[in-house]
Recover the amino acids of this structure.
């Protein structure tokens, strides 16, 4: 059991936003496969079909995607949250987005009746004009949106950060000032792939975000810097597919880790990673994950 | 994988709305029933099941398929695959039933070719709206006996594939392979379930795919959360019991649409 922002996670692995999170059934499957908590697909005020395909491609070093925040709107998604909540005993975190503070609150309140255990504010999607990272690169907007949602809901608010800024710490501090209970780092890294046979950018949206193994070193550094500067917990995400990967993020300063792209082969990645963390803590005679959170900062 | 650049080397107009495209690239390790993501550059990317080891058969249904159907020899497409899980391979001496509706015969035809080559005993029921829309009949005929049904009676029996199934002893088959419009597949499913043989049946499903590689979750089935692109697109009848199959699917934004 791990406690993050007052939520009891069954283990430190969490399903990342936008992965297997469009239906209640898919999220239940991830919990059965060992996820200690789940984050839903990012949900907005209106139905959105997202960008045209190809929307995700596997590269040698990871994946690039530009889904374009497809979602059925909060009105049509609230039942999916109810379905997961009824079936599982782990926290269900609703990821939400909007164009401004009012829309964020509209979505949070719209999903409220399904009792999500926390909200994760997506101010970090790198390929949705007017949403996500467009907002998340501006500390004043992040602070304002965080504060407005924080005041409107009575569950923890996590703010998911983009690495596509000069200094992620500025944005993390803005979230903290706005009253965030935790920050989540990182969303995907802006990236592009071009088809050399034709010259066409491969993604339907032309560019997108990099995920998977390639971004883990970026995540580690972002988490490391945030840990040094913030007082609130950090939830690490980016390129985790083994227990070693997750321990690396935890040692940089993460209190829990999210897993996204690595579900590609098997949803049981959650069980493998969390069992691995537990074995490691046992072997090293640690009482719990707290013993190693941010430990890299002391090793000088 | 990045899309592989494939050139169209031959096309066959199968029906007024359906064409087969042969490529200069052959997917030799593809199992019948696996699919590829077909990228019409600058337009969109759609899943297609292989109808031959080096071909897809495309019916014009939307923007992207309309674009593909208009391509000719020498044009190229970007292709990722093979992806997903194919049909269980039959063995020599096993008895096989194919049930296909319309262009649903395309994914089954390579399996019929395989069955012919290993000497399995095959019966096929092919349904179509009319005789013009009947495709790959000769590939199934080479594998064994064929029953044709058409909605208008222009070829074979006037009616649906399920009318034909009611006249047959479906319990005599070791494997039953089904592909076609979902409403038709569901009727077949009910028919086989009534006789408690749906566990020997495999269905090739269609859902809206985004990532196509099992990450995003857009094609997950209720209530199992199975991914059609990665855990399917072929499912055993037992996996489809009490599921959304035959009832609803989801749109690109995730809203439910009745079948
Ligand atoms: C297909 C796909 C869809 C995603 N959708 C969202 C989303 O809706 N909201 C969000 O905050 N992050 C989204 N992300 C980002 C992930 O949650 C995660 O931050 C990122 O992929 C890095 O983790 P990973 O390397 O484990 O995949 C998405 C990522 C992928 C690959």
């Amino acid at each position: 059991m791990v406690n993050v922002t007052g939520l009891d996670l069954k283990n430190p692995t969490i399903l990342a936003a936008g992965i297997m999170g469009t239906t209640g059934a898919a999220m239940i499957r991830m919990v059965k496969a060992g996820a200690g908590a789940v984050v839903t697909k990012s949900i907005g005020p209106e139905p959105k079909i997202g960008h045209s395909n190809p929307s995700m491609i596997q590269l040698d070093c990871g994946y690039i995607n530009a889904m374009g925040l497809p979602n059925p709107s909060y009105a049509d998604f609230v039942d999916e949250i109810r379905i997961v909540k009824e079936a599982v005993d782990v926290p269900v975190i609703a990821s939400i987005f909007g164009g401004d503070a009012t829309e964020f609150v509209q979505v949070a309140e719209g999903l409220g009746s399904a009792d999500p255990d926390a909200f994760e504010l997506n101010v970090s999607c790198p390929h949705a004009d007017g949403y996500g990272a467009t907002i998340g690169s501006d500390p004043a907007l992040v602070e304002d949106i965080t504060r407005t949602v924080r005041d409107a809901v009575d569950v923890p608010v996590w703010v998911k950060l983009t690495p596509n800024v000069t200094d992620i710490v500025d944005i993390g501090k803005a979230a903290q000032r706005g009253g965030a209970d935790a920050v989540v780092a990182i969303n995907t890294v802006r990236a592009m792939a071009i088809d050399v046979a034709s010259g066409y950018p491969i993604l339907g949206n032309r560019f997108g975000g990099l995920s998977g193994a390639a971004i883990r070193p970026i995540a580690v550094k972002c988490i490391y810097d945030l840990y040094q500067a913030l007082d609130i917990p950090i939830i690490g995400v980016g390129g985790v597919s083994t227990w070693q990967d997750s321990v690396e993020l935890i040692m940089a300063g993460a209190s829990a880790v999210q897993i996204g792209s690595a579900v590609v082969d098997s949803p049981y990645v959650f069980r493998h990673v969390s069992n691995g963390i537990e074995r490691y803590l046992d072997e090293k005679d640690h009482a719990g994950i707290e013993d190693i959170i941010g430990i890299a900062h002391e090793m000088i | 994988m990045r899309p592989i650049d494939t050139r169209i080397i031959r096309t066959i107009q199968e029906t007024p709305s359906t064409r087969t495209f042969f490529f200069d690239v052959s997917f030799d390790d593809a199992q019948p029933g696996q699919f590829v993501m077909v990228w019409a550059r600058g337009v969109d990317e759609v899943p297609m099941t292989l109808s031959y080891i080096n071909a897809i058969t495309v019916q014009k249904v939307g923007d992207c398929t309309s674009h593909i159907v208009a391509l000719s020899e020498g044009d190229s497409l970007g292709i990722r695959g093979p992806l997903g899980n194919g049909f269980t391979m039959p063995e020599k001496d096993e008895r096989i039933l194919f049930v296909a509706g319309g262009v649903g015969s395309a994914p089954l035809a390579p399996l019929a070719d395989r069955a012919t080559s290993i000497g399995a005993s095959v019966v096929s029921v092919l349904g179509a709206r009319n005789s013009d829309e009947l495709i790959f009949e000769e590939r199934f005929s080479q594998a064994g006996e064929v029953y044709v049904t058409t909605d208008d009676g222009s070829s074979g029996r006037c009616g649906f594939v399920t009318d034909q199934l009611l006249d047959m002893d479906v319990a005599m088959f070791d494997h039953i392979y089904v592909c076609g419009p979902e409403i038709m597949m569901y009727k077949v499913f009910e028919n086989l379930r009534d006789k408690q043989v749906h566990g020997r049946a495999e269905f090739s499903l269609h859902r809206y795919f985004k990532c196509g590689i099992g990450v995003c979750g857009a094609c997950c089935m209720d209530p199992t959360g199975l991914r059609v692109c990665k855990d399917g697109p072929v499912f055993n009848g037992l996996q489809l019991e009490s599921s959304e199959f035959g009832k609803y699917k989801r749109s690109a934004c995730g809203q439910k649409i009745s079948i």
In short: The CA atoms of residues 243 and 279 of chain A lie 10 Å apart. Chain A has a mean pLDDT of 96. Chain A has one domain: 2-47+69-187+213-299.
